[in-house]
Amino acid sequence: MNRIPQCIFAKNESGQFVFVNESFAKLYGLSAEEMIMNNIRDLIPVKVESSKFLQEDQEVIMVGQTIEIPEHKVTDINGVERVFNTIKIPFVVAGTNEKAVLGIGFEITEQIRVEKEREKMVADIIQRNLDLEQFSYIVSHNLRAPVANILGLAALMDLPGDNIISIAELMDNLTISVKRLDGVISDLNHILHIREDINEHRVFVHFSNLVTDIKISIENMLRLADAAIITDFAEIDEMISIKSYLYSIFYNLISNSVKYRRPGIKPIIEISSNLLDGNITLVFKDNGLGIDLAKKGSQVFGLYKRFHTFVEGKGMGLFMVKTQVQTLGGTIAIESEVNKGTMFKIVFKISE
Amino acid sequence: MKKKEIPNFIVIDDDRINNTICRKIIQSVAPDADIQTFFDPNAGLVYIQSAYGTYDAKNVILLLDINMPTLFGWEVLEEFKSFSEVVRQHFKIFMLSSSVNPQDKERAAVNPLVSGYIEKPLTLLKVQALLYQYNSIELN
Q: What is the pTM of this model?
């Protein structure tokens, strides 16, 4: 009984162990002898757990019925949470009147972990699929719009009556439509390129260097807006990644903060990084116009979506940012309040 | 309401070329119709509210694009819904889109504010059908 992997134990009415097998004792880093005739309260460090276990035991003994606890959570000697499928059976210690409880625990920690991982993967895949479906609708819509215009313009030439449209006007509009069509096709190329570029070689990228490079490339824009960029990469300043993607992510988020600043208020962009539990988190915070997330939240990262029309833009920036973050295996979230500012939080896992 | 009335037209679409096409097509079917086009949906809404706030205003066929970069046609409809009955009674709204997303057609079909869905580009036949449908709605 000592050798079987299931955890087996028996406790008397007052909570003292009358039997434990090795698998069970090992959970707490003890030997079987050290546990016998001791109360679980005095043996394990997590008091919330010991009192919960004792309460279960009392219930089993009082009611006299076997209970099954499908996901029994136990903190082991190393402070790691383990999950057991446990049954607790009431019995009377042989040769006495003493009531006791027999417990058999079958460890399912790994199964639960795998199951959770799989659930998360399936949810991710479903989400990616929905995103792709949405993407293809948007792309085909944006391809169809200029095509519909070309068809419409061609039909105008057939209209009865003179001077419906002059040749010059017709040519101008046809040219604009064809250029738009070409624009959508090159955008599409650009986007598809990201998804296949994942094999581009990864190098150490320093966040502070990225910001310095971007500051130089948009120096004019920053000066005209009197924008300040405050960075704090003290905790972590580098990661192994695809440099061009990180550059594009930083570039888009920084230039958005400058473009969508609040008039009359000095734009302040704070960028910081931190390292926690094998995750690198990058935070971009500004004091700009903000976006009404209650109304626009679902569209923030959408292709060809725009929230302000007073400055030039194609509605591609945040779409590209999200695609690049995802391609690098990360996640991005937004918090924003109108006339307060916007914060983007990007998380990359590095614990692989 | 007299028979064969020619209503006013309003087109709201961020695509200026489409607005030009719509104006010329409508003009050639109904040369006397008043046609207003807006590439900024908010400007269109402001105009609607100010020009149609009286009972004696003419009736309007509104052609509304769905995919606009700042405001979806659906959001324009939500705004329109909040207008007074005096304004709303003048309008028959048709969604005008090059969308291939079946969801858009379904949404148009179930929205009580929407009388129909027209695929771009607008053509002579489509405007004639629109006027025919408009007059039969009015006659009922």
A: 0.66
